[in-house]
Structure prediction request, 347 residues.
Amino acid sequence: MHPSGKQSAETIGRRDFLKTGVAAAVGSAAIGGGASAAGEPPANPPKIPTRPFGKIGRELPLLGYGGAALPKTWLNPLSHEERVQLVRYAYDRGLRYFDTSPIYMESEAILGEALKDRRRQVCLVTKVETTRPDGVRKSVEQSLKTLQTDYLDLILIHGTPGLEQMTVEQAMKIHAELVKLRDEKVTRFVGFSAHSYFDKALALISSGGFDHCMLAYGYLPRGYNQVHSARMIELRNACVAKAHELGMGIAAMKVIGAGMLGAWSEYMVPGFDKQRLRRLPAAAIRWVLQDERIGMLTIGMRLKEEIDANIKALSGPTAYTLEDRALLAGFSARLYDTDHVKKLRID
Prediction:
């Protein structure tokens, strides 16, 4: 069984979000909350369920850490050391898949510092954003240095900047450079991410040359800065089907709508019942879990409380319920009526 999105929805890019008036309020509230990542995990933490993860050859915990949640510029309220401790806290709670990118500013450096003494126990993922084949090796070498490692488990062609700005033919030239690095054991696997433009993504998957794909796949049919049209959703579903057929690892991003169903929900829909708001992330997670072909949920988490809440959602009952359906539909109806949504383009 797998869900299929059908309604149009909001999207607001992370960088666009920072330009809006709500960003200041969110940042102020987060910093004012004084949350710290220094806490210890529970003595008997709940176990995160696992699923087979494509060609990586082993099962991994379903919850992956999205490193885009770490930069200060993108509203992480913690100090550098607290963010290092946050990543270690995620590891201690059972997370083993850590995703980042050079464009996420200090994210690679924080992950490198946090994971250098447990490198062999994690699946470490970064990206290349260059559209020039001769820039791939330099990008990867710099990431290796920043991440304090001599190899990567997975390198992705970034969705944007990257695949969105390239033709399929150009992307395959970047792929050829990544394959060279795979042959040299610099990386174990190669893949790509896609926020939208699933026509290009489907062509890359169908080439048979990729081990992994990370796709925008959540209740809110949104990408980085676009709303998915019905056509694009169908193409996204075709990507999942073809990747599964080929035995690729499939990761879902935008599970929480890049925070629209989580940290930013009360700012996007003021006045919505706060008790119900707290249940939104778990409902969104259960929506994605309906699709058993998804092997990883890559979610950005700024605070240890967010890590704990997502683990709780995954380790408890995971059936998507009528209550979940009603909650997500009710919140989204209000969300779609905001100015943020009405101004956005549809792909």
